[in-house]
Every structure is written in structure tokens, then in C-alpha cells.
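Submission sheet (multi-component)
Chains listed below:
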Amino acid sequence: MSCLTLQASALTFPAPPYSNTLSNDSQDNASKNISSISLLRKCRTFKEIPPIHANILKNGHQNDPFIVFELLRMCSKTNSINYAFEIFHHIREPNVYLYTVLIDGVVLSGLYLDSIRIYCQMVEDLILPDNYVISSVLKACGFQMELKFGREIHGQATKLGLCSNRSVKLRLIELYGKCREFQDAKRVFGEMPERDVVAATVMISCYSDHGLAEKAVDVFNLVRIKDAVCWTAIIDGLVRNGEMSKALKFFRRMQREGVRPNEVTCVCILSACAQLGALELGKWVHSYLEMHDIDVNHLVGSALITMYSRCGDIDEAERIFNVLRERDVTTYNSLIMGCALNGKSGKAVEMFQGMITKGIRPTNITFIGVLTACSHGGLVDLAFDIFDSMETKHGIEPEIEHCGCMVDLLGRVGHLEDAYKFIWSMKITSDHIIWGSLLSACRIHKHFDIGERVAQVLVDIGDADSATFILLSNFYAAQGKWEAAAQARVKLQDGGVRKEPGCSSIEVENEIHEFLLGDTRHPKREEIYKKLEDLNQMLRLKGYSPDTEVISQDIGDQEKKWALAIHSERLAICYGLISTKPHTTIRVVKNLRVCSDCHSAIKLITEITGRNIVLRDRNRFHHFENGICSCGDYW
DNA sequence: GTAGGGTTAG
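Outcome: structure written.
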């Protein structure tokens, strides 16, 4: 057997320091064994384990494989893998059961390479693998994407006659699926006696992981009796591939077919609601959780907080946070980012400081949240303090996203030269996103000299995407350099990259209605455009005149005014005005940044109609009320 | 007397 391509170097197995007096077979010892085992099985936290372990040592049971098995199992269940290693090192002759339970624990801790090494050690010790240990090590190979070694294990399993085992087959499908070897995954899937719902679920999530949502749906359709987990896998796959409407359709179908969603299903649907800004559906899921007594653990809690905060209801997000039974870093991350997006910078910083005081360790995501908050709130000094503390106090190396927050912040407050220097001083390589963010700030602050330098860098680094060409085009257009602007547009088309069209959506009676620029596809288009015309007249009476500078194409003034008036967010707002009750809040989600002209127009629209309007754009929330926006015209 | 099916925040 040649499985030693990976060295068993990380782990050594010292000789046992204990004397090897095995317990005798007396009735007394047997009952002690059973009581240790049942005690261990009752453990819920790690701190209960050492006293029992001490007792086992005292009674000389440290070499009883059944007791040690239970000890190791409890260590991995209570997330104490180092203690498990310690125990394992002292076992004289570990058998396949003990190796398996250790490998499982190591896999659970995410130490996939270590678990593979332990398996190698086992084979070196001439212990014959069984289907359980093969399944365990295959799981490690899948998560580590260790295809070559995984194939070797597959070969060993075939020689040992273990490949007919269902668990082994499931793990093989998972291994090949995670490694994008779908031919092999399908071959094993086809060998399964029936179209197995669990195997199908594995296939579905692997296809979804690799962006192959259609293939995932094909597999899903093959399954005759679909359970909640299988439904959840396809819904989650669609959500993660950006197919929100399809995901919601599957969710409705799931309920029509009488399959009860579980808490994981709810997390996935809440994530879809958060991305769509579908508050009504999100609320429905929330009440569903309450009605069906589904446990709101920290993941469900985080999903609820994210849903409410991304739908603009930050008060409800805070309320959920406050009543949660368990709060961990994920719940904090969700609310910190929620506060940041909703313009509550102070609250976000307060939460961040609070979690540190409570001893909860922040993650890289926490810093993206709190730095975004600083950026949106213009808190320069505080942002630098926090940014510097990442490495010095928290041992987290800043990534490009964190640097991006800093550049965004310096750009917003008009410190453009500082931002420029900051990018050059970064330890990590800059990208077109960070330079693009600075270019955008240069355009807003009309700092064309720095902008020209930034534009040159962007052209030089040559990894520009469609958004970059649009930024460049808009930058030149803002200076009236129409030819350069047009050239950037030509490059955009030459590169075969298309501009992401501006799209706004609004949820009315549980339906999501989407609008593009000048969209005329909606069944109520006539009423919508009539409303738009009425509003335009009222806007003119209020002294509003369109700021045509924001339109960067070289077209006539009259055309520019029209192009602004039919921006997708205005169409969505008009649909909201005609289809919802007076005084209710209108909530619109836009995929791009709102332009300054629409921003001014919407402020006036809240004055004219007496409605509150909540607009979520690509970067943040704008809560419009009585002619004022929560962003303080600073975004 | 030792043992597991798949799905989860940003």
C-alpha cells in the first residue's frame, strides 16, 4: 500500500509514559467502565471531561479501548482537539476505532492535512482500514481538495472491497464534486442502487459551489422523494449563485409540496430576502420561525439581523440582537455591518468596542464592518486607530478590502493626496477596485490633477473591468473631455465587457418588481409614467432643475434631462406610490450607486408626497424623510 | 459493548 506521499511529520507518537497495567476482567472493573462511559456521554462542555479523565487514570483504565474511544469522541464534540491529541499520544496500540474517532475530531476542527497524516500513520502501523476510517479520510481529502491523495484512497478502498459501502460512495461523490471532477462524481452517483436523495444533495451542493446552478437543478429534478435538506440545498445553491427569484420559487414549491422548512432553509431564504430587500417575505420567515418554535441560534439570529438591516429596518435588527440567547462574533458582525450601512456609525463603533470588552475576538469581517462605519461617518482618526490596531492588538493582517475602506474614507473627506499616498504605501498589491474608488472620489471632489495620475495607473495595471472603464469614461466626461470618455467606452465594448445595467426593485404584496432604465415592460407602465410626469411637474414647481452633469454621454441637454427622469429608482418609486397605501414607507433596492440628481429629486419627492423613502444602493442606505436624507448628502 | 447521510451569517 503506498499512501505515504504525505509525510507523517506533524505528529509523533511517543512511547506511553504510563505503566501498562491493563484492567482485569472483574465485575467491579466492568461496572466502572460502564459508569465512565455513561458519565462521558452526558458531558456537554469540555470542563466536565478532565475530572472524568483523572478518574479513568486513577482506576488504570487508560488503555481500555472502549473508554478511550468515548473520551476522544467527547473531546472532539466539545471542540477540544488538543486534549484529544494528548490522550491519543499515550495510547499504547490504538486500533482502527481510535484512529477513526481521532481523525473525525481533527476533520471537525478543520485540520484536514493533519487528519490525512494521521491516516497515513495508521496504515504505516499496519492497521487495516475499514469503511468508517476510509469515509473519514475521504471527507478530509474533499475539504482539502486533495484530489491526488483522494484517488489513492479510492484505489485502496477498491482493493479492500470497501467501495460498495454507501458512506464511502457518498464521500467519493463529495471528494470528486468539491474537486470539480464531475465525470467521476457522476460515475459514483450512477453506481448507487437508487437515485439516493442524500447523494443527490451532495451533487447539488457541489454543482452550486462551482457556479453550475442549472446542473444542480437537473440533479434535483431527478430525485423522487425530496426531503427538507435536499430542498434547502437547491434553494441555498440558487441564492449563492445570485438566482434569488428562482430560489423563492423553489421555496414556494417546497411548501406547496408539503415539505416543512427547517432552520437552515430559513437562513437561506433570509439571505435571499436580505439581498433582494424583500422585507415582507423576511418578516414572514421571522414569524414562521416563531410560530413553529424553530430555535433562533446564532446563525438564524445573524441571518435575521442581516435581513432586517439590509431591508433598512435597523431598529428591528437591534431588537433581535438584544433578545438573542446566544451571541457570538457572527451576530456582532451582522449588526456592526448593519449599523454601518444604515448610517449609524457611532453605534457600530460602540458595538465593536463592546464586543472587545466582552472578550469576543473580532475577525477580518468585523473590521470590514467597523471601518465601513468609520468611512460612512467620516471618522478619520478613529478609523486609523482601528486600522492600526488590527495587526498590533488583534493579530489580523489587513487585506485589500480593509485598505479599500481607508481609501474610501480619505476619498470621501477630500483627502485625496493622502489616499493616493496610502495606496502606494500598502504592503499588499493594489487592484483596480481600490484605484477606481479613488478615481471616483477625484471626480466628485473635482480633483482632476490627482485623478489624471490615478487614471494613468488604472490604464497601466491593465486589469480593468467594465466598472473601471465606466469610471474612467465618467471621469473624463466630468471634465468635458468627450473624446477620452468615448475612447474608454470603446475599450469597454472592445473588451467584450458589458456595463451592468442599473436596476431597481421594490417589493409589493410579496412580489418583487424590477425596473431598468426607461423600462416599459411592467403591466402598469402607463400609470407609472403618468405618475412620473405628475411628479416631474411638481418637482419643477419646487424649483428643481436636473443636474445634467452627472450624465456622462455627449448628448443634448434635453435628452440628458429625460435620461435622468427615467432612472430605474424613479420608476420603482413611482410604482410604489401608485400601489401602496398613503403614508407607508417605500423601500427600493438599487444595484448601483444612486446618482446625485436622483438623490436631490428623491429628497423633494418625500416633501411632495409626505412619504418616507428608504433606498438601498450598492454602498449604503439612504433614509429619505421630509426632504432630508440620513446620509447627510455625503456618500 | 466502540461509529456518521446531505443543507447554515458577511
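Remark: Residues 507-629 of chain A form one domain.
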